[in-house]
């Protein structure tokens, strides 16, 4: 590991302060490096993945003998040296041809990684048409029912989101800034397809434009090989939310399954026997209501009771 350097200048202090943990993280930088041996297929896919990640990416020109599943210390060394949290390693061997390793770091220590084999790959230069500008944040689409079926695909999905999501803070979406879509489809628990499209907004006669997608590359078919999931304690520390960013819960207010805000009001038990409704102006009885009540009461008296009352009055 690298020795912790003490800053001697103001620029050095700012550089070390920039490496300190932040409440709101920016785009995570990634290191793209090659192993001792690579094939033409994996190299073309490797370069296109680097092009989609720019400018938050570092491409190492020299080849390095790195075997992350056997000895992850080399990745930890490059992580601390380049202040990078993500790695993409391209290699090729007889046992594992056209190999890509996606690794993620936390506090310059290896968190998790997935090994992918490239079965088919069409580079970006083979597709005609305009390409997206460098640095634009893409739309990421994960389709398929197998993403939650295995730990390998869950880990791979999380790493891809961290690599191409950009900055975490976002106040709004500008349609003019959306230029490309990264679509990842899980065909099965072992096979994944990657497609990239450019977005074209055309007139539709309404406020919302008509969207057309044109494939711009790369187009890859991957197969999942090995996976090293994150340790439970390391994952808990990596996903811990700072106190400053935690949303303060409001008492008796919650959200339902549809996302609507629902409030709950607590009231004391009402005693209807002591309610003084007669003193309310809107509930007072008028003279017409009293005459109607007396007439209604006379109609309700039975005939034999009326005869008995008339006899008493005549006596």
TrEMBL record:
GO terms for biological process: maturation of LSU-rRNA from tricistronic rRNA transcript (SSU-rRNA, 5.8S rRNA, LSU-rRNA); ribosomal large subunit assembly. Residues 289-301 have a biased composition (Acidic residues). GO terms for cellular component: nucleolus. It comes from the Eukaryota. It is found in: Nucleus, Nucleolus. One of its GO terms (molecular function) is rRNA binding. Coiled coil: none annotated. Keywords: Nucleus. It holds the Pfam family Brix. Residues 28-233 form the Brix domain. InterPro entries: Brix, Rpf2. Residues 274-302 are annotated as: Disordered. Belongs to the RPF2 family. This is Ribosome production factor 2 homolog. It comes from Geranomyces variabilis. The gene is RPF2.
